[in-house]
Specification:
- By secondary structure, this protein is mainly alpha-helical.
- The chain has two domains: about 45 residues, Single Sheet (Rubrerythrin, domain 2); about 325 residues, Citrate Synthase, domain 1 (Orthogonal Bundle), CATH 1.10.580.
- About 50% of the residues lie in helices and about 5% in strands.
- The chain has 18 helices and six strands.
- The strands form two sheets. A three-stranded antiparallel β-sheet has the order 1-2-3. The chain has a three-stranded antiparallel β-sheet with strand order 4-5-6.
- Bound molecules: s-citryldethia Coenzyme A.
- S-citryldethia Coenzyme A binds next to α17.
């Protein structure tokens, strides 16, 4: 029996259908609300509003569950390669040997970017934030591949665009890094893994053969998987809304890169390290920072804490915290900031303000500590998040496109001036 929700407006009763998802999540379908009642709903930040029905990622915020296409994040992080997870998110199933070989080979042979793009990098100022460079370069890919701009694109065009973007993002990310450190760009090497090739382009130099460190390769593979998708977060919703106008994939993902940059979203991993460094430099008691985070008159927030969905724990933060101990131990890195992070977590989780609000470490709290141990500069942390999130953005854009979802265009309640006549300049 299909459920309904009843609403009484101006003395009249209305019924709206209830949607039930495959994990028994419930939603009231209000797609006919305005047409039948003249009312709209109001929900700043869309905290209670679903934008789509998606089969890609399932989150259970109360129980700390995260699954990509039904597979638990804990299993994928331990057993899968990032390229396998990218295929899973985009095409819906884990690839078999032939599918993986084709996917891998196609991506490997699209890693080089047009030589003209080097001139774009040369034009950026030294010290340009890599996220600003990355979002610009991703958007410019649409100019080199105009067939991607065709809104009536057929599946082969879409697949080629998808493979090109997955292949070229690490190349562009590494070029942004090399621009700022003043070292020569490294061309991709086809005999390396996806992650190994990124490492080669980041840290390799022409003078010698780069040796891929398996510890670093494994850590990055796990971190990319943990960041690969997260249902309708800010940047993914941005990719979907931009794509809903039939903008091409490159422009949609470029917008996602820009949304991810914000310190309340993916930019938090950079903000966390800056916060921990400030705590270390100042040496004041951790409780004083906790008190500042609770003080509504103080703009300071405990970066890397809190989440719109997870209210008990972020499963990714648990995995990354363990990985931080493992990787720093394997690399022989002793980073005092890791101890500060653990102590800060301890103090916060014994404070009612955080516990009552369900504020726990999120994916960004420990990830920067690993990136730092791997030799990645702080301003590249959110680029690392973007590299991981790319297949999620692509899979969500592809789902929205295939479902021919309507252009995203929210309504509003107008609270401005009522009608008034124009007055001449002398009369104002
Ligand atoms: C990511 O959506 C996703 O899935 C995102 C992400 C993904 O994979 O795509 O998981 C990645 O973006 C993780 C979040 C990274 N951001 C940060 O770590 C920045 C610090 N965190 C916050 O700014 C905040 O917690 C958000 C943005 C993450 C969530 O904000 P919400 O859901 O809008 O919650 P809110 O701001 O309304 O906060 C609710 C209460 C408020 O206090 P009261 O008004 O109830 O008194 O909690 C407080 C907030 O002041 N609060 C914090 C806090 N986070 C929330 N107080 C101090 N420090 C914090 N970090």
């Amino acid at each position: 029996m299909s459920e309904t929700a009843r609403m009484i407006l101006d003395g009249q009763e209305y019924e709206f259908p209830v949607i039930t998802g495959s994990e028994n999540e419930k939603a009231i379908d209000i797609s006919k609300l305005r047409g039948s009642t003249g009312y709209i709903t109001m929900d700043p930040g869309f905290k209670n509003t679903g934008s789509t029905q998606s089969g890609i990622t399932y989150l259970d915020g109360e129980h700390g569950v995260l699954r990509y296409r039904g597979y638990a994040i804990e299993e994928l992080a331990e057993k899968a390669s990032f390229i396998e997870v990218a295929y899973l998110l985009i095409y819906g199933d884990l690839p078999n040997k032939e599918q993986l070989a084709y996917f891998n080979d196609s991506i490997t042979h699209h890693t080089i970017v047009h030589e003209n793009m080097k001139r774009f990098f040369d034009a950026f100022p030294l010290g340009a934030h890599p996220m600003g460079m990355l979002s610009s370069m991703v958007a410019s890919l649409s100019t080199f591949y105009p067939e991607s701009q065709n809104p009536n694109r057929d599946i082969t065009d879409i697949d080629l665009t998808i493979h090109r973007l997955i292949a070229k993002l690490p190349t562009l990310a590494a070029q942004a890094y090399k621009h700022n450190v003043g070292l020569p760009t490294m061309y991709p090497k086809n005999n390396l893994s996806y992650v190994g090739n990124f490492m080669h382009m980041m840290w390799g130099v022409p003078a010698e053969d780069y040796e891929v460190d398996p510890i670093v390769e494994s850590a990055l593979n796990k971190l990319f998987i943990l960041h690969a998708d997260h249902e309708q977060n800010c940047s993914t919703s941005t990719v979907r809304v931009v794509g809903s106008s039939q903008a091409n994939l490159y422009s949609s993902v470029s917008a996602g890169v820009s949304a991810l940059w914000g310190p309340l979203h993916g930019g938090a991993n950079q903000a966390v390290i800056e916060m921990l460094e400030a705590i270390r430099a100042e040496g004041s008691p951790l409780q004083s920072w906790i008190d500042r985070a609770k003080d509504k008159t103080d703009s300071f927030r405990l970066m890397g804490f809190g989440h719109r969905v997870y209210k008990n724990f972020d499963p990714r933060a648990r995995i990354i915290k363990r990985a931080a101990d493992e990787v720093l131990g394997q690399l022989g890195v002793n980073d005092p900031v890791l101890d500060i992070a653990k102590q800060l977590e301890e103090v916060a989780l014994n404070d009612d303000y955080f516990v009552q609000r369900g504020l726990y470490p999120n994916v960004d709290f420990y990830s920067g500590i690993i990136y730092r141990a791997l030799g990645i500069p702080t301003d590249m942390f959110t680029v690392m998040f973007a590299l991981g999130r790319l297949p999620g953005w692509i899979g969500q854009w592809k789902e929205m496109t295939e479902n021919r979802e309507p252009i995203g265009r929210p309504r509003q309640v107008y609270v401005g001036a009522s009608e008034r006549a124009f007055t001449s300049l002398d009369a104002r």
